[in-house]
C-alpha cells in the first residue's frame, strides 16, 4: 500500500517516526514524506523519500515572532531583546520594524496566505498520489487536513508524554487560525480529526488522549553521525560515573545564543568526581571556553549511542532527549524552558525516574546538588530501569505495521465533507507559542 508521512518543520517532531518508516518500507509498502523543503535533506539522510511540498515561514520564525509580539505587548520577561525573527541575531533595537504593530499584522497576513497555499498544494498532491494511510506528527496540520479531505485514515505519531488533550499551556495540537479547514470544506475542529494516535511512551507516562491508541515501542533515532570508539568500552564499577549534558537546538534558535549559562552549568557539574560529556551544537560548544580535564565535547554524537554508557543525563526537557534516555534506562535531570518541556519534565519526575528544575531560573550549584542526589539514590536507577523495561515490552515498529494495514483497510471512522477550492486570501493569524 501507499503510506504518506506528513511532518512539520522541526526534526525532533518526526525523528520518532523514522524507524516506523523503515519498517513499512521493509514490509514492501511505498512511503513518501511530505515536508517543508528545509527538511528534505534530513528526511533523505534517514533513508526515507521526501516530497518537499511545503514552503514558507518555519517553526523557528513563528516562535521568534511570538517573542517579538510579547515585546510589543509588554509581556517579554527578559531585560535583553529576543533574537531577530529572520536572522536570529541579537536585536539591539526595534527601529528597523517601523511601527511594530503594523509589522506584526502584515507578517501575520503573509504567513496565513502561505499556510493556505501549502494546504492546497498538500491536498492536491495527496489526492493525486492516493495513499491508503496518512501518518503525521502532532503539529502537522497539513497531515490531518489532507487525510480528512482525501477521506483517508490517519494516525498521529506522538513523540513523548504530551498528548492530544492537554490544558492550554501544554496544548500542541495546531490551531487552524488561518481558517483553512472551513475553506477546504472540512466541517470539524482540528482535534476532532485525530482519531488514532501512535503512542510510544511507557504505560506510566501515557500521554492524555481521547483517540484510539496504537501502542508502539520508542526506538531512538537522533540523526546520523560518527560514534567515538571510546563509547564502546564497557563501563566498569571502578570508573567515574559518566554524565551526559545535552541541549538541543531549540533554545539557541528561538531564545537566542547565550540565553542560559551552559558553561557555568558544565563547570559546576565537573567539580564532582564524574566524567562529563557535553553534546551541543558547535556554536554552543565554541562558547564554553576552557574546560576541566574531566569534560569531553565530542561533537555531534548520536545521543542513543552514548546514553547506555551514562549514569545520568542533564537535558532541557525535550521529548527526544527524554525518550532516548528512557530507552537507555538512565536517570534524568530536566531543566525545561518551554511549556511542553515543563510537562515532559514534571511527568517524568512524577514517575520517580528523574528530577527537574526550572530552566529559566536554575543556578549551576543547584544543578550540581540535584545531580548528586540523582547519582546517589538507587531509587532513580530502579525506576529508570522499570520504564526502560516497559518500553521494551511494547510492540516494535515492525509489529505496528500489521495494525496500520488493518487501519488502512478499515478506512476512516468519521467522515468530514470536503472540497478543494482555490486560495482566496488570508484570514487573521495569531502567533503560536507552540515549541518543541
From TrEMBL:
<dbReference type="Pfam" id="PF06722">
    <property type="entry name" value="EryCIII-like_C"/>
</dbReference>
<dbReference type="GO" id="GO:0016758">
    <property type="term" value="F:hexosyltransferase activity"/>
</dbReference>
<dbReference type="InterPro" id="IPR050426">
    <property type="entry name" value="Glycosyltransferase_28"/>
</dbReference>
<feature type="domain" description="Erythromycin biosynthesis protein CIII-like N-terminal">
    <location>
        <begin position="22"/>
        <end position="248"/>
    </location>
</feature>
<dbReference type="GO" id="GO:0008194">
    <property type="term" value="F:UDP-glycosyltransferase activity"/>
</dbReference>
<dbReference type="InterPro" id="IPR002213">
    <property type="entry name" value="UDP_glucos_trans"/>
</dbReference>
<dbReference type="InterPro" id="IPR048284">
    <property type="entry name" value="EryCIII-like_N"/>
</dbReference>
<dbReference type="GO" id="GO:0017000">
    <property type="term" value="P:antibiotic biosynthetic process"/>
</dbReference>
<protein>
    <submittedName>
        <fullName>Glycosyl transferase</fullName>
    </submittedName>
</protein>
<dbReference type="Pfam" id="PF21036">
    <property type="entry name" value="EryCIII-like_N"/>
</dbReference>
<comment type="similarity">
    <text>Belongs to the glycosyltransferase 28 family.</text>
</comment>
<feature type="domain" description="Erythromycin biosynthesis protein CIII-like C-terminal">
    <location>
        <begin position="265"/>
        <end position="407"/>
    </location>
</feature>
<keyword id="KW-0808">Transferase</keyword>
<dbReference type="InterPro" id="IPR010610">
    <property type="entry name" value="EryCIII-like_C"/>
</dbReference>
<keyword id="KW-0328">Glycosyltransferase</keyword>
